[in-house]
C-alpha cells in the first residue's frame, strides 16, 4: 500500500544578500550602485566610475571643457570601444584631437585594459557647473591694486636686491 502522506514542501532559497533588506547602518554605495548601474549601463559605463572620476582621469583642465557621454563596444566584446565625449567649443574639440593619444592612455590606464580605442567628439553646451562635478577650486580674491601682499615681511629682508625682486614678483602676482 502506498503511503498517502505527502512530503512537506521545502521553502525556496532566500533572495541574494544584495537584495535583502538590511537594518542598521549601510554604506550608501551599495544601494546607489543598484540604482545607477542600469542608467549608466545603457550608455556603456559600468557603475558610472568613468563619469564620476572623469576629472581625476583626464585632469581638471580637460574635464572643465568635456563630459563623457557613452562607450560603444564592438558586438559581443568589451574591448577597444569608442568613447563619445561632449566638448563645449570647436576650439577645444581641435585641442582634444591633439590630446586624443594622451586621453586614451589615461582612460585605459584607469581601467587596466584597452577599454577605449578611439574618441568620438560631439560639440555642444555642457550642463551647468552646479550640475556637473566641480573640477577646479574657485580663484582666490584679487588683492587691491595698490597693495603689495606681505609688505611687512618684505621689509624684514636685508638684501636690497632680493627685496626688490620679491617686490616685483608681488606686484606681478597682484595683477
Overview of this protein structure:
The chain is an alpha+beta fold and 175 residues long. It has 2 domains: 95 residues, GMP Synthetase, Chain A, domain 3 (2-Layer Sandwich); 33 residues. The chain is built from 7 helices and 3 strands; from the N terminus they run ααααββαβαα. It has a 3-stranded mixed β-sheet with strand order 1-2-3, with helices on one face. The longest helix is centred in the middle third of the chain and has 22 residues. It is elongated. The mean pLDDT is 76.
Which short descriptors sum up this protein?
single chain; 175 residues; alpha+beta; GMP Synthetase, Chain A, domain 3; 2 domains; three-stranded mixed sheet; 3 strands; elongated
Measured distance between first and last alpha carbons? 104 Å
Q: Give the tally of structural domains.
A: 2
Largest sheet: 3 strands, mixed
Rg from Cα: 28 Å
Q: For the record, what CATH class of the largest domain applies? A: Alpha Beta
| β-strand amount | 5-15%
What is the overall pLDDT average? Answer: 76
* Low-pLDDT regions: none
| Spatial order of the strands forming the largest sheet | 1-2-3
The quaternary organization reads as single chain
* CATH fold description of the largest domain: GMP Synthetase, Chain A, domain 3
The structural class is alpha+beta
Indicate the overall shape. Answer: elongated
CATH architecture of the largest domain: 2-Layer Sandwich
Q: Which bin fits the share of residues in helices?
A: 25-40%
Q: Helix segment count?
A: 7
List the secondary-structure elements in sequence, H or E: HHHHEEHEHH
- Total strands: the figure is 3
Amino acid at each position: 500500500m502506498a503511503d498517502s502522506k505527502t512530503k512537506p514542501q521545502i521553502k525556496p532559497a532566500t533572495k541574494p544578500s544584495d537584495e535583502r533588506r538590511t537594518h542598521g547602518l549601510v554604506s550608501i554605495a551599495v544601494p546607489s550602485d543598484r540604482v545607477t548601474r542600469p542608467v549608466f549601463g545603457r550608455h556603456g559605463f559600468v557603475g558610472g566610475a568613468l563619469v564620476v572620476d572623469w576629472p581625476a582621469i583626464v585632469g581638471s583642465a580637460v574635464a572643465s571643457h568635456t563630459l563623457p557621454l557613452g562607450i560603444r563596444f564592438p558586438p559581443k566584446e568589451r574591448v577597444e570601444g569608442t568613447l563619445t565625449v561632449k566638448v563645449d567649443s570647436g576650439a577645444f574639440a581641435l585641442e582634444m584631437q591633439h590630446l586624443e593619444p594622451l586621453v586614451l592612455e589615461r582612460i585605459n590606464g584607469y581601467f587596466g585594459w584597452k577599454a577605449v580605442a578611439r574618441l568620438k567628439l560631439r560639440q555642444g553646451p555642457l550642463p551647468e557647473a552646479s550640475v556637473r562635478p566641480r573640477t577646479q577650486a574657485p580663484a582666490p580674491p584679487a588683492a587691491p591694486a595698490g597693495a603689495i601682499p606681505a609688505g611687512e615681511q618684505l621689509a624684514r629682508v636685508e638684501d636690497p636686491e632680493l627685496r626688490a625682486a620679491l617686490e616685483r614678483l608681488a606686484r606681478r602676482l597682484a595683477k
